[in-house]
Amino acid sequence: MEMILILLNKPYLLIKTCARGANYKMVIQEPKTKSSHRTMSIDDKTANVLKSWRTHQRVESLKYGHNTSDKYQYVFTTVRDNKQLYPEHCNKALNLICEKHNFKRIKVHGFRHTHCSLLFEAGLSIQEVQDRLGHGDIKTTMDIYAHVTEKQRDQVADKFAKYINF
């Protein structure tokens, strides 16, 4: 499972890997493959949202006596003890949101698939998407993560007609 280390003084994400260690404790380690060890650029709007969240997190954590000014502070933590959230916590919260709004159930990892599909819909090349996802093998990107979106399906006939000058 990937986790994101966000260094907000630069507009990028540094990818680390989060795994289960002894007694089910989360352990942060280097990614397994060379291609997984990467940084990802993020847009200014996303960086600003994360900075705003960091400010909110600091205010709330200080109420419980936690100093969260370390540059390696986790993004998602429990407020009372400043411990990182387990992926199950995020999935549970997401399940509640899906149930409340009658959405199809999705796990947090599903957003990785969505991100991949939307990158293709935005016109990025296969190599750009592969690099962003950190896949060493293009087959992983194409066979597992890339899905055709409704918008892409709707545009197929028009694109073909335009191509053949119909």
UniProtKB/TrEMBL annotation:
Statement: the UniProt record of this protein carries the keyword Isomerase: no
UniProt key word Ribonucleoprotein: no
MF terms (GO), sorted A to Z: DNA binding
Stored Gene3D superfamilies: Intergrase catalytic core (1.10.443.10)
Source organism superkingdom: Bacteria
Record keywords: DNA recombination
Coiled coil: none
SUPFAM superfamilies: DNA breaking-rejoining enzymes
Domain Tyr recombinase per the UniProt entry, residue ranges: 1-158
PROSITE patterns in the cross-refs: TYR_RECOMBINASE
GO biological processes: DNA integration; DNA recombination
Name of the molecule in the record: Integrase
Protein's organism: Staphylococcus aureus
